[in-house]
Amino acid sequence: MTIVPVYNAILVPNSTVYLQSDLYKRATGRSPVTEEKVTLIVSKEARTREELTAESFYPIGLSGVITEIHPEGFIAIKTGDRMDLDEITVTNGRIDLFVSRRPETDDLDAAADKRRLEAVRGELKEVAKNFRWGQGAEIFIDQWDSLGEIASVLSPWMSCTNAERYAVLEEDSTQRRAELLEKLIYENLEMTKLNLEANNARQEDHQKIYRESAIRKQLEYLQKELDELHPENVSDIRKLEIKIEESGMNETARKEADKLLNRLKQEGQNSAETGMIYNYLDFLTGLSWKKEEARTIDLKEAERVLEEDHFGLKKVKDRIIEQIAVMNLKQEQSGSILLFVGAPGTGKTSIGQSIARALQREYVRVSLGGVRDEADIRGHRRTYIGAMPGRIMDAIQKSGVSNPVMVLDEVDKLGVSYNGDPASALLEVLDPEQNHTFTDHYMNVPYDLSDVFFICTANSTDTIPEPLLNRMEVIRFQGYTPIEKLQIAKRHLLPKAVQAVGLKPEELQVTDEALEKLIAEFTRESGVRGLKKRIDSLCRAAAVRRARGEELVAVTPENLREVLNDHPLRSRTVKENETPGIVTGLAWTSVGGEILYIETLLTKGNGKIIITGQLGDVMKESASLAVSLVKHLFPEKAEVFEQHDLHIHVPDGATPKDGPSAGVTLTTAIASLVTEKPVPSTVAMTGEVTLRGSVNPIGGLPEKLMAAQRAGVERVFIPEDNVEDLEDVAPEVLSQLTITPVKSVSEILNALGVTAEEPMLQAV
Ligand code: ADP
């Protein structure tokens, strides 16, 4: 008995199956012989004999005898029972088998099967006629006397998988097997017919298209010949024409370009419009009109790139990897529009560049700070003299592709003017429903922006119009702790700066202590922009020494000031303070968190409230609310308010929206003033206050706590509803602060001992 491993064949018991002689030879290593007994076993994958293992096979095989060897290159095998492969071993391509007969359920309705066979034959003859299988086909078809035989003959042309083919052999019920065979045969006949119809239809269309493109090619060819004969005569217009032809622009753009080109031809070189038309066509043909293929990005590699360029920022990086994974799955080139929000120098823009690198795409940056005209975004109409495309299309052209990663910087600094609202134009750029046909006024033809990966950056979301904000997914950059800054300086800023001035890495030593001092005393920021500048100037100083031939010394905390040739910043740390009426608050500014002192003072008068400081208007409400609340909490001090004027000073800095979060600080300051109980300056607080003294949540807590820790604050009161935000605060910041969540102002006042007891207040 010869064991023949087969792959991709339909094997039917008690029937006839056909195998290619070649396949037999390859499987057994010799030629087939008639009357030879065989066991056919089915391998799960296409493998050479040497690659086979015991696991390569399905558990059921088929016995048979070779009955005919056809000179056309195939053999017929009369098949018998199915076999369970009880044991199989494969050693160096040699297969040993123990098999036992596998019983089957004979429930076939013979009469129905006969009808089925007839119907299939009829259908086959029909197809044979349409496909011109040849005169003899009908005779063959009549000779095949079971569905199994037919399926086995057609098997090489069927589009089904090895597993689908094996399913026939695996079926125990003869009735269900017959149904399965019928289904396979019909499905594949239908597919064949469909292909035939599609081919016919295509042919008709093609004939027309072929003819047209043949004529075009011929024209082009003749024109080229002419150009080559007289290169000096290839006019600028002809050059433009060639560029237009080669650009691959869409139909609308092509029409517009052809129209202008014709105008150029008719009006000649000297018309007033010539320059404009040249510029326009130059711009249009400079754009990439090709749709780039969506690439599958290796997530590990993308992670590596992000890690390499930026230290920390774990949440941000995780979110970006998520987005890349989704884009991979959907085979899309863009996903949600990300809005990076955070203080300057926290890495928002530069991580955009890394994202482009991780995605292996081009990177362009558009700065929107101070943009006030709609035309800046959408371009000027060409009727204007000096009209230009908008910044978006200009950036697309610079990128040279249709799918760059585009960073739109400072979307919170968009302005509005009488020349339209740039934010609404931007909305159109970012809207996936509309941006596949974005029409720049200058271009006047649509361009598909749907493959552009947009990233926006902003310092704060306060000034971004609501509809624009809704389109984007906000990702916050919290700012760095001193420990993180040290790592960023060591790993990224210093090596880059050293390289930029042309020094070798070993030529400039900066000790960790010097960097720590630089961070603590020469910078005051959430990000690392100032730090970068300081490090750059360290490197320049070293470069100068080097150029003068002086010896280079390591930068240490001791010589730092001398090398930088600058004073440290006046540090904004908490001042010693034991005066009632002054309380440390925490503000959130567009450059990160800051501490600020709210100062209050009573002067002789008649109950007026004076508020000074930049946020006068915003604070007025908070202040009068705080005054009412203190009057309510300390009814016995009513007279104090009547006989004095209250002066409140809130220093500038905070963003207007953050105004209300000074509520608890204002209330505490006024309460401290009237009760004459000082509040230690190492205690800071933030929270919005309601008229009845409840404390409501505020924004920017992580930044505020970081500022508090920087400034040396020891204890901070925060609204209880903000407790969740503590998750976003670095552990090294939390470990240095005692945080007390509160629900009402009274809790703060009680905790600080700001209560109404004697001594009575004296006016200052
Ligand atoms: P932003 O856009 O937030 O104002 P940038 O992206 O311009 O900030 O960053 C300013 C500088 O700081 C860049 O040189 C950047 O490479 C560097 N930088 C910021 N964050 C990191 C970080 N986490 N790791 C390494 N370098 C950083």
Short description:
The protein has 764 residues and is an alpha/beta fold. The chain has 26 helices and 22 strands. It folds into five domains: 2-101, Archaeosine Trna-guanine Transglycosylase, Chain: A, domain 4 (Roll); 235-286, no CATH class; 299-473, 3-Layer(aba) Sandwich (Rossmann fold); 482-564, Helicase, Ruva Protein, domain 3 (Orthogonal Bundle), CATH 1.10.8; 582-752, Ribosomal Protein S5, domain 2 (2-Layer Sandwich).
Question: How are the SSEs placed, and which strands pair?
Answer:
Layout: E1 2-6, E2 16-20, H1 21-28, E3 37-42, E4 60-70, E5 74-91, E6 94-102, H2 110-130, H3 137-143, H4 147-154, H5 162-170, H6 174-229, H7 236-247, H8 251-267, H9 274-286, H10 299-309, H11 314-330, E7 337-342, H12 348-358, E8 363-367, H13 374-378, H14 391-399, E9 405-409, H15 422-430, E10 438-439, E11 446-447, E12 453-458, H16 466-471, E13 472-477, H17 482-500, H18 512-522, H19 529-547, H20 560-564, E14 582-589, E15 592-604, E16 609-612, H21 616-633, H22 638-643, E17 644-649, H23 663-675, E18 683-685, E19 688-689, E20 695-696, H24 701-711, E21 715-719, H25 731-734, E22 738-742, H26 745-751
The site of adenosine-5'-diphosphate has 19 residues, from helix 12, helix 17 and helix 19.
